[in-house]
## 1
Amino acid sequence: MKNLNEKTAVITGAGSGIGRALALNLAEEGCHLAISDINQATLSETENLLKDKKIKVYSEVLDVSNKEAMQAYPEKVIQNLGEVHILINNAGVSMAATVEEHKVEDYEWLMGINFWGVLFGTKYFLPYLQESTEAHIVNLSSLFGLISNPNQSSYNAAKFAVRGFTDSLRQELRGSNIGVTCIHPGGIRTNLTNSALFVSSPGGKTREQFCAAFDKYAGVTPDKAAKAIIKGIKKKKVRVLIGPDAIIGDIVQRIMPQRYSWIGRLSAILF
């Protein structure tokens, strides 16, 4: 899909971070947008930033973990924008805690957004994407969908699940009108860490210390991440690694699949 002009893209989690950056960059490409987020205030901010763009925008407050809401969402997008060409399942949350500290409800909450949100979006938009001449599905995994890290078991589980789900989907859709890309961002300067449910970090730091360390470490802006994702859509890439940490993490887990835990020990020092 080399030309995105006059195409229609659906972006979940568009209220901030990578989702907002994707909305702004796709708007510059002339892409019509269906944007959603669970946070009305931040979603309205994104909508206001798109006001002067010469595109159509449909905005809705949406909980991606809500099956019924997600099932109804595609038809609303079609009614407002006419068709769908690109689906970007971006919405996500994070939590820092040991397995012992996690409650079962914490796992259910995070998996509901980070995995089931991706599954619902894909499942319910798929029939509409199949009607387009050319379409693309983008699912956001993570560096932690390539390697695991201590105090991130729920996040790791969800992002590994997204990776497996997306790889399976891509193989099923090979030769069809729909391309599939899995995204693995490393440290991106978004609000994900600051808004995470925080119980403990690997290094025993406080929430404030942990967030300050991450902000110092995260070297990639949401805008740069968005541009890499859009490039991946245009080139029909299977996988997009964003940031040097994601590239290094991918290499290390291939070379030393049983011994990359030194990265976790390093994170305990850093974070």
Note: Residues 67 and 93 are 17 Å apart (CA to CA).
## 2
Amino acid sequence: MIDLKRNSKKELVPAKGLRSRKSSIYAPGQTDDFKISRGKFSDFLTCQRCFYLDRVKGLVSPGTPGWTLNETTDHLLKKEFDECRLKQIPHRLFIENGLENLVPFQHQDLDRWRDSLHQGLMCRFNDTNIILTGGVDDIWQNTDDGRLVVVDYKSQANTKPLTPEPYLADPYHDGYRVQMDFYAFLLQEMGFEVAETSYFLVCNANRNADGFFGKMEFSEILIPYRWEPGWIPERASEMIKLMNQHDLPEGNPSCVNCVSAKERATIESRH
């Protein structure tokens, strides 16, 4: 997909290949605090070369448009859960799934924690200058023991039966598990007790409906997931070590961005 740069008025403007905001570029050896979001941490896990070029060298990666339907689903779900949050009563899905002991978690900072662009869950990693952040979709609470339950909303349109084992085993959902592990890790580091089981709330559109007729039908399924954040400190330490080096790391052989950039440079060098 070819991406064109536009300003706040939606006017086309010259695109820049490098970031201009210094606060989004890390200088090896710096001591000032620097934020790494869950998305950027996932980038590090996916391709260290792309991550380094982005965070350390300030290279702007091609953007992708927002998924408006997915964002709308999230927005409407949050409205629904917030109503139950205000009354501190179980959501209808809790009752349907035998989880009457859960209620949406009520906290003064919840809106900040859900703001992935500007705030999110946040903690300093060990005694470093790296602040890990991540915007969580929702947090529920077990009224029996007070522990928090991490929740992530997912929207899809799949005709296959939706059950926990194949859903979690899908290689395309590796990033989903990283998300959940990361959010649970942040909450623990912030001093909260977190329940071992988190949930993906999957909204699956019905592609077998007779027609559209002005509405789209969704089924709602809770996929339980036992998060495992024990691996995060080691990988986060590796990430910080990488950020403080001056040598460009190797890329992932399967990274499409890397191979595309290499082939483009080769083609252009011939002209």
Note: The longest helix spans residues 68-87.
## 3
Amino acid sequence: MSRTLVICISFVLFININFAYSYDDEDVKHFLKNSECNECDLSNYNFENSYLDQAIINNSNLTNTNFNNAKMANSQIKNSDFTNSTFIKTDMPTTKIENSIFRNVNFEEVNLTSSTISDSNFVKANFNLGKMYGVIIKSSILDEAIITNVNIQKATLSSSSFINVNFNKSLLSLSLMDSTNLSSSNLAQSKARGVNFSNSNLEFADLSYASFRRSVFLKSNMKNVKYKGANFYKSVFTGADMSTIMSENIHFKKSILCKTKMKDVIINRDCRN
């Protein structure tokens, strides 16, 4: 092996080792003792199974960090970066998250019950099988996130972006999803009874075989939506744009379709209001 090759390999190993241990030791000790992190670097550290309830995290770097199975209930997170971190089975109900980045984070089976999220980035985050009952999400970006098989009932998902999000088989009943961009999202087979979708964009969304009984779609954009087998019993579509409906077996029984754009619509006769 040449001297040049040995030097190159040694340099690569040096870079990888330094990347893997980029956290600050003093910051880690302080955080584990006090559950407090202000302007600190905890990136790449392993906090798996740690007890961190009521943690306070501000203006900090926690990228590529492992919080799997950690206890973080009632925590406060603000202005921090958790890109590529993992929160698998993490218990963090009633947590408050503001202006933070959780891009490409794995939240599988996480407990975020009654938590509040605002002005944050969760692009490509994975919440599969998570608990998000009563969660409040406002002015945030969750594009391309995975929210499958999740209990997200009685939640508030307002003024946020959920473009191309997968909600397949999730429970969304009695939630508020107004003024939200859900274009190209997959809500197939979801349970969304009594949900308010007013002023939302659902263009190109897949609503196949989902239940939207008693839901509200006031002034919503529903063009190019897949409706096959969807149930809209007693739902309200006043002012909605459904001008491109061509699906079969849509159930609109007792729904309100006043001032709804429905050009070239095909609806089963027994489904008319």
Note: The first helix runs from residue 3 to 20.
## 4
Amino acid sequence: MDRRKFLKKSATLSLSHLGLSSVLLGGAPLFAASLPANIVDFSATQLSQAIRLGNVSCVETMQAYLEHIHRYNPSYNAIVSMVEDDDLMAQATDADEAIAKQSYRGWMHGFPHAAKDLTPVKGLRFTSGSPMFANRIAQQDSALVKNVRDSGAIFIGKTNTPEFGLGSQSYNPVFGATGSAYDPALTAGGSSGGAACGLGTHMLPVADGSDMMGSLRNPGAFNNVIGFRPSTGLMGGGDPFSRSLATSGPMGRNTQDTIVLLISPPTRPS
């Protein structure tokens, strides 16, 4: 059996043991009393089910996250190249209309999401943290981004990274430094520091990053979230080093969220 197919099949078979089948396949309804008071405090798996079951709308979700981002991101500098609020709210409205028509796009339907600024998202700035590419606009999605978009996510911007991802912190001359979720005066680690800080401060429900020598694991530890480096290519690659030692991987506030992002059906390059 192909190695990638074996890994994916093994992960999928583990769903029932981890209680994650209901997230990807639908399951028992949520009860309002079991949900946090603030949408940004929902875990990604809770948010997924709440949106699918109509407990919260995509518009409510986007509004809650945008308010939270505008309040805290100026202090932490985790999310960069933000899309305009009006555009994002229009996309959230479209996502709600899709649900009303029973057109559910995937477990991340209506999620606000920001990809690490080492991977292209069509139509968004793609700086790689370098002044040389400060005004570059991505012309297409990476395989990783296509997978996340196909799962229903709405891209709100990018997450900060050191220039070309080279460093164990998240500073670059284009956007500056990203601070730790616990003290913005301290480093968030790197190179997926923007993603980890965005998670730790609840500006994102789940995140992606990449890792060559600790770039998911190091910022995960610095921000008290999970950064997991999977087998090479399992999440579709997507950064400049994906042909060498680095690979894309998931980040989450808890184990369930991290695993669901990891095993959501990947899109392979043609």
Note: Residues 163 and 222 are 19 Å apart (CA to CA).
